[in-house]
Amino acid sequence: MSGRVRASRTAEGGFSLFELVVVLMIIAIASGLAAPGIQSGWRAREVRTGTRALAAVMRGLRERAVRRGAEQELVIDADGQTYRWTGEQQATLPGGAAVTGIRGGWRDQDGGARLVFYPNGGSSGIAVVVGQQDGDGSSFTIRVDPLLGTVVIRDATT
């Protein structure tokens, strides 16, 4: 009988505790290496999303200025994350995204920048750089042409 018991014990498969610990350590190391890449990808996505949202507001204001025949204003606050426009509407850039640089436009005393779209389709012109708050990673430039008022997004990191 003892021969049968030994045979059935050796026929049973399974993993030892040591093997399970090794596999768990490999998984932990792999996830530790992958986490920074996933986080930087998420932050880059927030910057792209914020850039597109701000550019969409600019395009909408240009269209509204032409359609209504009245000037439309966009104000980018000094905090670099909040922007507001004609009609008392406002929005905030997502998470780690912020306006990191502005060229052109009119400056307010509080440090904000003002962009005006005119009824003829033109604008006061501006170039807004949207990137990560800490300055790392990808960034995009939104250029608004002063004569035509066209809004163009370009990759600022290249």
Descriptive account of the structure:
With 158 residues, the chain is an alpha+beta fold. The chain has a single domain (12-155), classed as minor pseudopilin epsh domain (minor pseudopilin epsh fold), CATH 3.55.40. Helices cover 39% and strands 28% of the residues. It is built from 2 helices and 9 strands; from the N terminus they run ααβββββββββ. The protein has helices spanning 2-11, 17-68; strands spanning 72-76, 82-85, 89-92, 97-104, 106-107, 113-117, 126-132, 140-144, 151-155. The strands form 2 sheets. A 5-stranded antiparallel β-sheet has the order 3-2-1-6-5. A 4-stranded antiparallel β-sheet has the order 4-7-8-9, covered by helices on one side. Strand 2 (82-85) and strand 3 form a beta hairpin. The longest helix has 52 residues, at 17-68. The termini are far apart. The model has no long low-confidence stretch (mean pLDDT 87).
Indicate the topology.
Elements: H1 2-11, H2 17-68, E1 72-76, E2 82-85, E3 89-92, E4 97-104, E5 106-107, E6 113-117, E7 126-132, E8 140-144, E9 151-155
Antiparallel strand pairs: 1-2, 1-6, 2-3, 4-7, 5-6, 7-8, 8-9
Keywords:
minor pseudopilin epsh fold, elongated, single chain, alpha+beta, 158 residues, five-stranded antiparallel β-sheet
What coarse outline follows from CA principal-axis ratios? elongated
User: Beta-strand level of the residues, as a percent range?
Assistant: 25-35%
Instruction: Bin the helical content.
Output: 25-40%
CATH architecture designation = 3-Layer(bab) Sandwich
How many helices? The count is 2
State the oligomer: single chain
By DSSP, the count of extended strands is 9
Q: Low-confidence spans: pLDDT under 50, at least 5 residues?
A: none
Sheet of most strands:
5 strands, antiparallel
Mean pLDDT: 87
Q: Helix/strand/pairing class, anyone?
A: alpha+beta
Provide the gyration radius in Å.
27 Å
CATH topology heading? minor pseudopilin epsh fold
